[in-house]
Design brief:
Helix content: over 70%
Oligomer: single chain
Strand content: under 5%
Number of domains: 1
Radius of gyration: 31 Å
Largest sheet: none
Length: 86
């Protein structure tokens, strides 16, 4: 590209960014059209406490399962190493 093309391109970018009215994105237009006929329902800011409590219990269960598997692998490797003839 020549220097003249760079200057013209820079001018075009400045001109485009300084536009007073900017068209919304395609997704914004699609959501506006969809919500015009069927607006979304209210969404609470925080989740229900029951949902959070059940997730907290499942995280403890998954942590216990992972730690149990790691302990089982360590014990198995120690047992195999102990029984291996030198």
């Amino acid at each position: 590209m020549s220097e003249q093309d760079d200057i013209e391109r820079e001018f075009d970018l400045k001109w485009a960014e300084s536009a007073e009215h900017k068209e919304p994105s395609a997704r914004a237009r699609m959501l506006a059209a969809r919500w015009k006929d069927n607006p979304p329902g209210p969404v609470p800011f925080r989740a229900d406490p029951d949902h959070v409590a059940s997730r907290r219990r499942s995280s403890w269960v998954s942590t216990a399962v992972v730690l149990g598997c790691v302990a089982a692998v360590i014990v198995l490797l120690g047992y195999l190493n102990f029984r291996a003839p030198y």
